[in-house]
Amino acid sequence: MQWRSLVLALLALRLAGHALLWLAGPSVGFYQQRLRAFVCNPTAAAQEAASNRHCFPDGLAAPHWASFLGRAWGGTGSGGGDSGSSAGKDGSLVWSGGGVGVGGDDDEYEQRYSRAFPPQLRGQLRDAARGMFAFGYDNYMAHAFPQDELNPIDCRGRGPDRDDPSNLNINDVLGNYSLTLIDALDTLAVMGNSSEFQKAVKLVIETVSFDTDSTVQVFEATIRVLGSLLSAHIIITDAKQPFGDMTIKGYDNELLHMARDLAVRLLPAFENTKTGIPYPRVNLRTGVPSDSNNETCTAGAGSLLVEFGILSRLLGDSTFEWVARRAVKALWNLRSNDTGLLGNVVNIQTGHWVGKQSGLGAGLDSFYEYLLKSYILFGEKEDLEMFSAAYRSIQNYLRRGREACNEGEGDPPLYVNVNMFSGQLMNTWIDSLQAFFPGLQVLIGDVEDAICLHAFYYAIWKRYGALPERYNWQLQAPDVLFYPLRPELVESTYLLYQATKNPFYLHVGMDILQSLEKYTKAKCGYATLHHVIEKSKEDRMESFFLSETCKYLYLLFDEENPVHKSGNRFMFTTEGHIVSLDKRLRVSLWQDTFPEEEKKAEKIKRNELRANNSISNCNRVPDERRYLLPLKSVYMRQIDQMVGLI
């Protein structure tokens, strides 16, 4: 019996040691270490960021739904040091949002997030998301159309910067083709606004031309314009009309013809390149500029397959899918033999990796996304095989932290930036685009891991009321401070709710909606946050705010939407354009032209996905956990500490 007493004593001692470490905070883990390669002497900007994280600007008036549960308006603002609960004037609990305060109990997470989400509140938030879209869209039509974007502060339109061709931040995106109107088409349909959808489609047909002297980025023109034209065409011609009557009287496939016209103007990017990887930019009238850059990012060159593939299969013309698929294969063949990873910038003539960073954010994000989504749409086995191999490499070399999301010891899972050849850490920041990845993990069934990564990005949102473009997890401060109304966190929130039906994600969506209303609303729309700490604005409303951010928020709260109830199956492109999984898209044409590819293009049955995808066993969240926190309070608190929220 003495040995049993000894074992119990040692066990008690170990537990006491862990308790002391926990009270001290997760200060000795991977994310808090002073890495030898990165000696941290916080800059003045970082120190200022840390000291100002509790400061709030004067907010806008609270909408009527903001205090429905007695929660203070703006509770998702910067910092969580003064969060918690207090008694309101009427004796009800008033929640200041923002996370659990210093010294708070883990039960506060349960109290805040696990309560039932009333249908009335959900309906009000759905209407608020619709109103947010309408405010931006109506002001664009009143003050900016037919220009590409709305300046929401000055209430004016914006087009290409003709005076400064080197202003790629503007000219890569704006092509003088009413970008915001085109990008918003399918959002109108998803929200059931048939009259405005029909009016907008007619405006596009009658007023938009791609015969314009504009040099645009192939990737941006493809995902924003080509993708939206194809989505709207499919909606119009869908015999089931799941969103209501979206048909156009006398419609003669004009949007499909416009999509082909644009794609033909983009094809010169794929010519005169030794690798088959396209040039990053083309002039829509004259082709590839004579001074064109031979360097392109992996995502830009390798994320064209969904839109080009849909176009090929609707037209019965293999050209478009073939050039896009050739580019994907060329990039795939350049991956590291040792790690299986790809870099983020490549020379299209030599195949040399100019940028050797491998991560999940800018430069690589949608490349991985489209490997999986191309398989979902087209059923080509090689797309799934490439994605499965890529995901294994990501898990092996990019993922840090404990093995399981919701159990065990150690730091929370996080995906970092590494050298593609060695797998060694390259820096200590991640960017906001990476917030899409939990949604992609939902699509492959890796829900548990998605829950952890989403919680990390949500903690950053709670601290700042937005996602800084780049966040340094070692300094616990932003490296790049602006937030251009990006949708990635909302997208992952929506997909995680669809996978788990956990009301936690409705609370997250409400926090995001509140923050957008409080910090980004301007006189004539919603503005980019120039500085997530000071909350200063920049006079730009990117088109993806209407095509993605508002759409995902609306769908999160609209349980009865045809997307969820019609019996149709849908997929969203990387720009949030909705595409029904149509049997027409399962008919391959490209291997008819190139028969040597036919054997490689063997179809895979839908029910083989799980068996072939050894990276995941489709880890679904059990039904009994639906009304518990998706992540245990102790781990949620750990993540909040990790980002400096508490």
Question: Could you explain how this protein is built, in words?
Answer:
With 646 residues, the protein is mainly alpha-helical. Helix content is 43%, strand content 10%. The protein has 24 helices and 22 strands. The strands form ten sheets. The chain has a three-stranded antiparallel sheet with strand order 7-8-9. A three-stranded antiparallel sheet has the order 14-15-16. It has a two-stranded antiparallel sheet with strand order 1-2. The radius of gyration is 25 Å and the shape is globular. The two termini are 45 Å apart.
Outline of this structure?
With 646 residues, the chain is mainly α.
Low-confidence stretches: 18-104, 597-618
Q: What overall geometry do the principal axes of the alpha carbons give?
A: globular
Q: What proportion of the residues form beta strands (DSSP E)?
A: 5-15%
Q: Label the structural class.
A: mainly alpha
How many DSSP E strands?
Answer: 22
Distance between the termini: 45 Å
Query: Biggest sheet: strands side by side, in what order?
Result: 7-8-9
What is the radius of gyration computed over CA atoms, rounded to a whole number of angstroms? 25 Å
Give a quick account of the main beta sheet: strands, pairing sense, barrel closure. 3 strands, antiparallel
Tally of DSSP helical segments: 24
Proportion of residues in helical segments = 40-55%
Q: How confident is the prediction overall: mean pLDDT?
A: 84
